[in-house]
Amino acid sequence: MSARVPLKEIALNCKGCGKNISIPIYVDDLKTQVGGLWQVSYLHDDHVITLLLDKNLSLRQHRSSTIARSSREEASARTSAVTTAQAVSTTAAAASPLPRPEARASVTVLLKTFGNNLEYVMKPVMTGKTVIVVGDLALMEIAIATLKLFVHKKELRISWFTETFVDPRDYDVIGIAQGLRDYYESEVILDIDNKKVSNGEECDYCRKVLKGLEKMNETKAVEELQKRIKNVYRSLLWMHQI
To answer: Strand 47-53 to strand 59-66: parallel, antiparallel, or no bridges (unpaired)?
Structure first.
């Protein structure tokens, strides 16, 4: 397969680190509009650059948001999500909900962002209830990939991103545009931008599973979480404890 060619490359000075960089814009980046402008999120080191482009793909505004001050390994985990997304062919027909490429999970990023509130999301994922993810698109992919680690030998039904209503009975995890939030009043919502979880329940057992992972590097945290989740599913009592 030939290499993908960007529609355009945007040269700018990153407000997060002060470096002059060039950001490629691909067809599948153009999926969210704000006030008539295309909004594109780009993962750069330990921060996310948000671009607003007009219909001619000219840069109107951009901002930078630091997501975590973390190790080089964790920053690499976030960057790989964007690299993976850019490797996907653009020849597939557009559909809603939009299928997303596989992003790399980052347990440490989610724990640093949501802390103990992550247990509120872990419980519904494990028990088959729908979780809605909303917020920054680059982090949305990482968050959804991380939620997949909360189950063992089960394939979650995922809508990586949609701008139109999707029935929550059809999916386990749904990534949505901000304008759809009011349609999911009763579902558990993982709000990335506001760093909170709505409609979740406390879960002491889930808290024990997550305990201490934030102190590990990314590779060790993922391995340890997967081991703990596997032990949970092996236990005949796990459903009662959750």
So the answer is: antiparallel
